[in-house]
Automatic annotation (TrEMBL):
It is found in: Cell membrane. Its cofactor is Zn(2+). One of its GO terms (biological process) is proteolysis. This is Zinc metalloprotease. Pfam families: Peptidase_M50. The keyword Thylakoid does not apply. Binds 1 zinc ion per subunit. Its main location: membrane. Residues 154-202 form the Peptidase M50 domain.
């Protein structure tokens, strides 16, 4: 089970949801059973049937029903694991977008950006602790059962499966919860989240290799031959962990690169004209080279009496005005108003900048850059998107 924090992008579309069946909502987010889970349920049911038949040989075909009941029990444990992630994530200020149960267990997705190491630690650790608590509950119930029958078999299986899921998820490597815990600890010590991500990602790759080596080495140490099914499952799990760890490292480095993007560095210069000016005035202002030898302004911003940015001229609309009409046409006829509250400070950068643009741009392509009440440039969200893709 993993938690995922999608990277922020300027004016993004709604987060892409996992495909499957929505069975409810937790923390304001849909709970989704993906189609791949049904494959996992089938495989787990078949694998568990021999255990049921060994305990209760007289069940016949009913052994499959009992085995499926175990799968549903496991599903409930996964659901509680993800619910714990979701509730703590929301309590730490995140926007939970989905809880999904998948072929590999499940994941909880959220947006908002973890601001402190403690946030990541708490969101991650609560999932495995939930499984360990369930394991303890099932185990005590199993110990209290006077006879060994089908219900007690399910209690025993519930205890073992939750203990395994809880312990496995605490392994210190991304994309497991233990990897996020390690990431948070390294982040807290070094003050750099990217360092934590890279360290936890490489440890995750070591864990991926270790899973396969465990499947091969343990039987040899016991003097037996590795089972093909065990090796295949270990290889699949190892491949999943390796891919997840690699993606975490890439995302961590990309997040650091995004942190270096600033409004000042991405903004285009702008000329200013007061409200009521003509198109001719705007063109003359635009042709004026700013002090310091900067390039000719890319945009003309219309400002109010208090220098508040009001609108930005539309280049196509300006070009459509005949030369003879430029001194008669006012700029408000060829300008696009700025979205109120969309302005950014030149020093705004990284995820703070991307989050602001996503939340405040209102779908507009251009936003003003304002410092000390004066427009210093215009930020084009297309430029921001290209810079993000280049990281």
């Amino acid at each position: 089970m993993t938690t995922s924090e999608p990277a922020s992008t300027p004016a993004p579309p709604a987060p892409q949801r996992s495909k499957g069946f929505v069975i409810g909502r937790v923390a304001g987010a849909p709970v989704i059973v993906t189609r791949s889970w049904f494959l996992a349920a089938f495989i787990l049911t078949v694998l568990f049937v021999p255990n049921v038949q060994a305990i209760a040989p007289g069940l016949g075909a009913g052994a499959y029903l009992v085995a499926f009941a175990f799968v549903l029990l496991l599903f409930g444990s996964v659901f509680l694991h993800e619910t714990a992630h979701a509730l703590v994530a929301r309590a730490r200020g995140q926007n939970v977008t989905e809880l999904a149960v998948t072929l590999w267990g499940g994941h909880t997705a959220y947006t908002g950006g973890l601001g402190r190491p403690l946030d990541g630690f708490l969101v991650a650790v609560v999932g495995p602790l939930t499984n360990l608590a369930l394991a303890a509950g099932f185990w005590f119930a199993y110990q209290a059962s006077p006879v060994l029958n089908v219900p007690t078999l399910l209690l025993y299986a519930g205890a073992l499966s939750n203990a395994f899921v809880g312990a496995f998820n605490l392994l210190p490597g991304l994309p497991l919860d233990g990897g996020q815990i390690l990431e948070s600890l390294v982040w807290a010590v070094t003050g750099k989240r990217t360092t934590g991500t890279v360290v936890a990602g490489w440890v995750g790759r070591a864990v991926a290799v270790g899973v396969l080596l465990w499947a091969l080495a343990v039987p040899f140490l016991q003097g037996t031959t590795p089972r093909l099914t065990t090796v295949l499952w270990s290889a699949l799990i190892g491949a999943f962990l390796w891919a997840g760890a690699g993606a975490a490292i890439t995302n961590g480095l990309r997040r650091e690169a995004v942190a270096g993007l600033s409004a000042k560095g991405l903004a285009s210069p702008a000329a200013l004209v007061p409200l009521g000016s003509t198109v001719g005035d705007a063109l003359r202002a635009r042709a004026t080279v700013p002090a310091g030898g900067a390039s000719v302004p890319h945009h003309v911003v219309v400002v109010g009496q208090d220098q508040t940015p009001v609108a930005v001229l539309d280049g196509n609309a300006v070009a459509a005005v005949p030369e003879s009409a430029r001194e008669l046409t006012q700029v408000d006829a060829v300008a696009v108003p700025f979205v109120v509250g969309s302005e950014v400070h030149p020093e705004m950068s990284g995820t703070d900048l991307l989050t602001h643009l996503a939340q405040r741009s209102g779908g507009a392509r251009l936003v003003p850059v304002v410092e000390h009440g004066r427009v210093t440039g215009v930020l084009d969200l297309a430029d921001v998107a290209r810079a993000v893709r280049a990281t």
